[in-house]
Protein backbone atom coordinates (compact mmCIF):
# COMPACT_ATOMS: atom_id res chain seq x y z
CA UNK A 1 0.00 0.00 0.00
CA UNK A 2 2.86 2.37 0.84
CA UNK A 3 4.48 1.71 -2.54
CA UNK A 4 1.15 2.35 -4.26
CA UNK A 5 0.91 5.78 -2.56
CA UNK A 6 4.49 6.64 -3.54
CA UNK A 7 3.80 5.65 -7.16
CA UNK A 8 0.59 7.69 -7.16
CA UNK A 9 2.37 10.80 -5.81
CA UNK A 10 5.15 10.39 -8.37
CA UNK A 11 2.62 10.02 -11.17
CA UNK A 12 0.79 13.20 -10.16
CA UNK A 13 4.06 15.16 -9.95
CA UNK A 14 5.03 13.91 -13.40
CA UNK A 15 1.56 14.71 -14.73
CA UNK A 16 1.70 18.27 -13.33
CA UNK A 17 5.19 18.85 -14.74
CA UNK A 18 4.09 17.66 -18.17
CA UNK A 19 1.11 20.01 -18.13
CA UNK A 20 3.35 22.94 -17.20
CA UNK A 21 5.76 22.09 -20.01
CA UNK A 22 2.90 21.90 -22.53
CA UNK A 23 1.51 25.23 -21.31
CA UNK A 24 4.96 26.83 -21.56
CA UNK A 25 5.43 25.56 -25.12
CA UNK A 26 1.99 26.83 -26.12
CA UNK A 27 2.76 30.25 -24.61
CA UNK A 28 6.01 30.45 -26.56
CA UNK A 29 4.25 29.51 -29.81
CA UNK A 30 1.38 31.95 -29.23
CA UNK A 31 3.87 34.66 -28.28
CA UNK A 32 5.71 34.18 -31.56
CA UNK A 33 2.45 34.50 -33.50
CA UNK A 34 1.67 37.68 -31.56
CA UNK A 35 5.01 39.28 -32.40
CA UNK A 36 4.52 38.40 -36.08
CA UNK A 37 1.75 40.99 -36.14
CA UNK A 38 -1.29 41.24 -38.39
CA UNK A 39 -1.25 39.21 -41.60
CA UNK A 40 -2.83 40.20 -44.90
CA UNK A 41 -4.91 37.32 -46.29
CA UNK A 42 -6.59 39.21 -49.12
CA UNK A 43 -6.91 37.26 -52.37
CA UNK A 44 -6.72 40.26 -54.70
CA UNK A 45 -5.21 39.33 -58.06
CA UNK A 46 -2.70 41.57 -59.82
CA UNK A 47 -2.53 40.12 -63.32
CA UNK A 48 -1.91 42.92 -65.81
CA UNK A 49 -1.04 45.41 -63.09
CA UNK A 50 2.24 47.33 -62.95
CA UNK A 51 4.05 48.36 -59.78
CA UNK A 52 7.25 50.06 -58.70
CA UNK A 53 8.89 49.04 -55.43
CA UNK A 54 11.94 50.91 -54.11
CA UNK A 55 14.48 49.23 -51.86
CA UNK A 56 13.44 46.07 -53.67
CA UNK A 57 16.58 43.95 -53.42
CA UNK A 58 16.26 43.03 -49.73
CA UNK A 59 14.07 43.04 -46.65
CA UNK A 60 10.50 44.30 -46.82
CA UNK A 61 10.85 45.53 -50.39
CA UNK A 62 11.92 42.12 -51.64
CA UNK A 63 8.99 40.44 -49.88
CA UNK A 64 6.53 42.92 -51.39
CA UNK A 65 7.99 42.20 -54.84
CA UNK A 66 7.60 38.47 -54.24
CA UNK A 67 3.95 38.75 -53.22
CA UNK A 68 3.09 41.03 -56.15
CA UNK A 69 4.81 38.63 -58.55
CA UNK A 70 2.93 35.66 -57.09
CA UNK A 71 -0.31 37.54 -57.75
CA UNK A 72 0.57 38.11 -61.42
CA UNK A 73 1.91 41.68 -61.42
CA UNK A 74 4.73 43.21 -63.41
CA UNK A 75 7.16 44.78 -60.94
CA UNK A 76 9.89 47.32 -61.57
CA UNK A 77 12.45 46.82 -58.83
CA UNK A 78 14.31 50.00 -57.87
CA UNK A 79 17.68 48.89 -56.48
CA UNK A 80 20.75 50.83 -55.50
CA UNK A 81 22.93 48.59 -57.68
CA UNK A 82 22.15 46.35 -60.64
CA UNK A 83 24.28 43.60 -59.12
CA UNK A 84 22.15 43.47 -55.97
CA UNK A 85 19.03 43.58 -58.09
CA UNK A 86 20.03 40.60 -60.21
CA UNK A 87 20.99 38.69 -57.08
CA UNK A 88 17.54 39.42 -55.63
CA UNK A 89 15.86 38.15 -58.80
CA UNK A 90 17.87 34.93 -58.59
CA UNK A 91 16.59 34.45 -55.04
CA UNK A 92 13.01 35.25 -56.02
CA UNK A 93 13.03 32.84 -58.95
CA UNK A 94 14.18 30.08 -56.60
CA UNK A 95 11.12 30.90 -54.48
CA UNK A 96 8.79 30.45 -57.43
CA UNK A 97 8.62 33.94 -58.95
CA UNK A 98 8.38 34.51 -62.69
CA UNK A 99 11.54 36.28 -63.90
CA UNK A 100 9.89 37.71 -67.02
CA UNK A 101 7.71 39.97 -64.84
CA UNK A 102 10.59 41.31 -62.75
CA UNK A 103 12.59 44.27 -64.06
CA UNK A 104 15.52 46.04 -62.41
CA UNK A 105 16.22 49.76 -62.56
CA UNK A 106 19.06 51.43 -60.70
CA UNK A 107 18.13 54.05 -58.11
CA UNK A 108 20.36 55.84 -55.62
CA UNK A 109 18.19 58.11 -53.48
CA UNK A 110 21.18 60.05 -52.20
CA UNK A 111 21.29 61.64 -55.67
CA UNK A 112 18.56 63.70 -57.33
CA UNK A 113 20.22 62.99 -60.68
CA UNK A 114 19.79 59.27 -60.07
CA UNK A 115 16.11 59.75 -59.22
CA UNK A 116 15.57 61.76 -62.41
CA UNK A 117 17.40 59.14 -64.50
CA UNK A 118 15.28 56.41 -62.93
CA UNK A 119 12.06 58.23 -63.80
CA UNK A 120 13.20 58.81 -67.39
CA UNK A 121 14.03 55.12 -67.86
CA UNK A 122 10.76 54.00 -66.32
CA UNK A 123 8.70 56.34 -68.51
CA UNK A 124 10.38 54.80 -71.55
CA UNK A 125 9.29 51.33 -70.40
CA UNK A 126 5.69 51.89 -69.30
CA UNK A 127 2.97 54.47 -69.80
CA UNK A 128 1.11 53.76 -66.55
CA UNK A 129 1.46 52.50 -62.99
CA UNK A 130 -1.08 50.86 -60.71
CA UNK A 131 0.92 51.33 -57.54
CA UNK A 132 4.10 52.74 -56.06
CA UNK A 133 5.71 51.45 -52.86
CA UNK A 134 8.25 53.93 -51.50
CA UNK A 135 10.21 51.66 -49.22
CA UNK A 136 13.88 52.59 -49.74
CA UNK A 137 15.60 54.23 -46.80
CA UNK A 138 18.46 54.35 -44.36
CA UNK A 139 18.12 54.12 -40.58
CA UNK A 140 21.53 55.16 -39.34
CA UNK A 141 24.77 56.74 -40.48
CA UNK A 142 27.72 57.02 -38.07
CA UNK A 143 28.52 60.64 -38.78
CA UNK A 144 27.04 63.80 -40.25
CA UNK A 145 27.38 64.00 -44.01
CA UNK A 146 25.92 65.93 -46.91
CA UNK A 147 24.97 64.54 -50.30
CA UNK A 148 26.29 66.02 -53.53
CA UNK A 149 22.99 67.91 -53.70
CA UNK A 150 23.84 69.65 -50.42
CA UNK A 151 21.35 67.94 -48.12
CA UNK A 152 21.85 65.91 -44.96
CA UNK A 153 22.21 62.29 -46.08
CA UNK A 154 19.34 60.60 -44.20
CA UNK A 155 17.02 63.52 -44.92
CA UNK A 156 17.57 63.31 -48.67
CA UNK A 157 17.45 59.51 -48.93
CA UNK A 158 14.39 59.01 -46.74
CA UNK A 159 12.39 62.13 -47.44
CA UNK A 160 13.39 64.45 -50.27
CA UNK A 161 14.09 61.76 -52.87
CA UNK A 162 10.99 59.87 -51.78
CA UNK A 163 8.89 62.94 -52.50
CA UNK A 164 10.71 63.69 -55.76
CA UNK A 165 10.03 60.16 -56.93
CA UNK A 166 6.37 60.30 -55.92
CA UNK A 167 5.77 63.65 -57.60
CA UNK A 168 7.55 62.57 -60.77
CA UNK A 169 5.50 59.37 -61.09
CA UNK A 170 2.06 60.85 -60.38
CA UNK A 171 1.30 61.24 -64.13
CA UNK A 172 1.84 57.49 -64.62
CA UNK A 173 -0.27 56.65 -61.57
CA UNK A 174 -3.08 58.86 -62.83
CA UNK A 175 -3.29 56.64 -65.92
CA UNK A 176 -4.08 53.59 -63.79
CA UNK A 177 -7.19 51.82 -65.07
CA UNK A 178 -9.04 52.41 -61.79
CA UNK A 179 -7.21 54.13 -58.92
CA UNK A 180 -3.46 54.39 -58.41
CA UNK A 181 -2.08 53.79 -54.94
CA UNK A 182 1.05 55.19 -53.31
CA UNK A 183 2.32 53.59 -50.10
CA UNK A 184 5.12 55.22 -48.13
CA UNK A 185 6.79 52.80 -45.73
CA UNK A 186 7.37 55.08 -42.75
CA UNK A 187 7.88 54.33 -39.04
CA UNK A 188 6.47 54.90 -35.57
CA UNK A 189 9.82 56.56 -34.88
CA UNK A 190 8.14 59.74 -36.13
CA UNK A 191 5.92 59.84 -33.04
CA UNK A 192 8.78 60.61 -30.64
CA UNK A 193 10.04 63.67 -32.54
CA UNK A 194 9.14 67.01 -30.97
CA UNK A 195 10.89 69.32 -33.41
CA UNK A 196 11.28 69.64 -37.18
CA UNK A 197 13.13 72.78 -38.21
CA UNK A 198 13.20 72.71 -41.99
CA UNK A 199 15.54 75.70 -42.08
CA UNK A 200 18.15 73.87 -39.99
CA UNK A 201 17.62 70.32 -41.20
CA UNK A 202 20.84 70.26 -43.25
CA UNK A 203 23.04 71.94 -40.64
CA UNK A 204 25.66 70.06 -38.66
CA UNK A 205 24.64 71.61 -35.33
CA UNK A 206 21.05 70.40 -35.79
CA UNK A 207 21.99 66.87 -36.76
CA UNK A 208 21.50 63.99 -34.34
CA UNK A 209 22.24 60.38 -35.29
CA UNK A 210 19.02 59.13 -33.68
CA UNK A 211 16.65 62.02 -34.42
CA UNK A 212 17.68 62.27 -38.08
CA UNK A 213 15.78 59.09 -38.89
CA UNK A 214 12.69 60.06 -36.88
CA UNK A 215 12.56 63.52 -38.45
CA UNK A 216 12.67 62.06 -41.95
CA UNK A 217 9.81 59.71 -41.07
CA UNK A 218 7.79 62.54 -39.52
CA UNK A 219 8.20 64.51 -42.74
CA UNK A 220 6.99 61.50 -44.74
CA UNK A 221 3.75 61.33 -42.76
CA UNK A 222 3.21 65.10 -42.94
CA UNK A 223 3.72 64.98 -46.70
CA UNK A 224 1.27 62.08 -46.98
CA UNK A 225 -1.50 64.06 -45.29
CA UNK A 226 -0.79 67.31 -47.14
CA UNK A 227 -0.42 65.79 -50.60
CA UNK A 228 -3.52 63.66 -50.22
CA UNK A 229 -5.67 66.75 -49.73
CA UNK A 230 -4.11 68.38 -52.78
CA UNK A 231 -4.65 65.30 -54.93
CA UNK A 232 -8.33 65.25 -54.00
CA UNK A 233 -8.64 68.93 -54.86
CA UNK A 234 -6.91 68.40 -58.21
CA UNK A 235 -9.18 65.49 -59.06
CA UNK A 236 -6.40 62.90 -59.19
CA UNK A 237 -7.58 59.29 -58.94
CA UNK A 238 -4.56 58.50 -56.79
CA UNK A 239 -4.45 57.70 -53.09
CA UNK A 240 -1.42 58.09 -50.86
CA UNK A 241 -1.00 56.52 -47.43
CA UNK A 242 1.90 55.90 -45.06
CA UNK A 243 2.42 52.93 -42.78
CA UNK A 244 4.55 51.47 -40.01
CA UNK A 245 5.72 47.95 -40.92
CA UNK A 246 6.75 47.09 -37.36
CA UNK A 247 10.22 46.55 -35.92
CA UNK A 248 11.83 44.27 -38.45
CA UNK A 249 14.92 42.11 -38.22
CA UNK A 250 16.27 43.20 -41.61
CA UNK A 251 19.54 44.70 -42.94
CA UNK A 252 18.08 48.18 -42.31
CA UNK A 253 17.59 47.45 -38.59
CA UNK A 254 21.04 45.90 -38.39
CA UNK A 255 22.55 49.24 -39.45
CA UNK A 256 22.36 50.23 -35.79
CA UNK A 257 25.88 50.28 -34.24
CA UNK A 258 25.37 47.61 -31.57
CA UNK A 259 23.85 45.21 -34.09
CA UNK A 260 26.69 45.71 -36.53
CA UNK A 261 28.95 43.75 -34.19
CA UNK A 262 29.05 40.07 -35.20
CA UNK A 263 29.39 38.92 -31.58
CA UNK A 264 26.27 40.81 -30.51
CA UNK A 265 24.43 39.52 -33.57
CA UNK A 266 25.20 35.94 -32.57
CA UNK A 267 24.16 36.46 -28.95
CA UNK A 268 21.00 38.37 -29.81
CA UNK A 269 19.96 36.25 -32.80
CA UNK A 270 17.43 34.04 -30.91
CA UNK A 271 15.87 37.07 -29.22
CA UNK A 272 15.68 39.08 -32.46
CA UNK A 273 14.06 36.11 -34.18
CA UNK A 274 11.45 35.73 -31.45
CA UNK A 275 10.56 39.33 -30.61
CA UNK A 276 11.00 41.06 -33.99
CA UNK A 277 9.13 40.60 -37.22
CA UNK A 278 10.85 39.07 -40.21
CA UNK A 279 10.72 40.76 -43.62
CA UNK A 280 7.63 38.83 -44.70
CA UNK A 281 5.74 39.93 -41.58
CA UNK A 282 6.88 43.51 -42.15
CA UNK A 283 5.47 43.47 -45.67
CA UNK A 284 1.90 42.76 -44.51
CA UNK A 285 0.70 46.28 -43.71
CA UNK A 286 2.28 47.83 -46.84
CA UNK A 287 0.61 45.09 -48.92
CA UNK A 288 -2.70 45.77 -47.20
CA UNK A 289 -2.45 49.48 -48.04
CA UNK A 290 -1.46 48.68 -51.61
CA UNK A 291 -3.93 45.91 -52.47
CA UNK A 292 -6.81 45.57 -50.02
CA UNK A 293 -10.30 46.23 -51.35
CA UNK A 294 -11.17 47.46 -47.85
CA UNK A 295 -8.97 50.49 -48.50
CA UNK A 296 -11.22 51.79 -51.23
CA UNK A 297 -10.44 55.47 -51.68
CA UNK A 298 -8.92 55.94 -48.21
CA UNK A 299 -6.10 58.47 -48.51
CA UNK A 300 -3.90 60.65 -46.34
CA UNK A 301 -3.85 58.15 -43.47
CA UNK A 302 -1.21 56.40 -41.40
CA UNK A 303 -1.50 52.66 -40.78
CA UNK A 304 -0.06 50.26 -38.23
CA UNK A 305 -0.98 46.55 -38.10
CA UNK A 306 -3.42 47.12 -40.99
CA UNK A 307 -5.40 49.72 -38.99
CA UNK A 308 -5.42 53.50 -39.01
CA UNK A 309 -3.14 54.70 -36.24
CA UNK A 310 -2.43 57.87 -34.29
CA UNK A 311 0.25 60.22 -35.52
CA UNK A 312 2.58 62.82 -34.05
CA UNK A 313 0.63 66.01 -33.14
CA UNK A 314 2.87 67.94 -35.54
CA UNK A 315 1.21 66.04 -38.40
CA UNK A 316 -2.12 67.67 -37.52
CA UNK A 317 -0.64 71.17 -37.79
CA UNK A 318 -1.81 72.39 -41.21
CA UNK A 319 0.55 75.39 -41.19
CA UNK A 320 3.53 73.13 -40.49
CA UNK A 321 2.45 70.78 -43.29
CA UNK A 322 2.10 73.69 -45.68
CA UNK A 323 5.53 75.08 -44.78
CA UNK A 324 7.12 71.66 -45.19
CA UNK A 325 5.49 71.12 -48.58
CA UNK A 326 6.58 74.51 -49.94
CA UNK A 327 10.13 73.91 -48.67
CA UNK A 328 10.12 70.44 -50.25
CA UNK A 329 9.14 71.74 -53.68
CA UNK A 330 12.01 74.22 -53.51
CA UNK A 331 14.52 71.64 -52.28
CA UNK A 332 13.53 69.16 -55.00
CA UNK A 333 13.43 71.83 -57.74
CA UNK A 334 9.74 71.14 -58.37
CA UNK A 335 8.38 74.68 -57.95
CA UNK A 336 7.96 75.37 -61.68
CA UNK A 337 5.83 72.26 -62.07
CA UNK A 338 3.77 72.66 -58.90
CA UNK A 339 2.80 76.33 -58.66
CA UNK A 340 -0.88 75.43 -58.75
CA UNK A 341 -0.77 72.98 -55.85
CA UNK A 342 0.93 74.95 -53.11
CA UNK A 343 -2.08 74.76 -50.80
CA UNK A 344 -4.19 71.96 -49.35
CA UNK A 345 -7.32 74.13 -49.54
From TrEMBL:
The keyword Oxidoreductase applies. One of its GO terms (molecular function) is oxidoreductase activity. SUPFAM superfamilies: NAD(P)-binding Rossmann-fold domains. Coiled coil: none annotated. The keyword Transferase does not apply. The chain crosses the membrane at residues 17-35. Keywords: Membrane, Oxidoreductase, Transmembrane, Transmembrane helix. InterPro entries: NAD(P)-bd_dom_sf, SDR_fam. It comes from the Eukaryota. This is Retinol dehydrogenase 12. It comes from Trichinella pseudospiralis (Parasitic roundworm). The lineage of its organism: Eukaryota, Metazoa, Ecdysozoa, Nematoda, Enoplea. The gene is RDH12.
Amino acid sequence: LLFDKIEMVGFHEFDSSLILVVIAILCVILGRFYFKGSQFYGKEKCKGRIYVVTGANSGIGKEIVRELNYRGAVVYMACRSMEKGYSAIDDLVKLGCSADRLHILELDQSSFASVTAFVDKLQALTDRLDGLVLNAGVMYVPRYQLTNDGHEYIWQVNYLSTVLLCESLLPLLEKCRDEGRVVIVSSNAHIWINDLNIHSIDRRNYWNSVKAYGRSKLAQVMYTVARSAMLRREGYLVTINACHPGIINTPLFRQLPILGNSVFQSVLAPFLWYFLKNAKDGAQTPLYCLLSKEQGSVSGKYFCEMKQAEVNPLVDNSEARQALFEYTLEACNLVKDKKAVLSEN
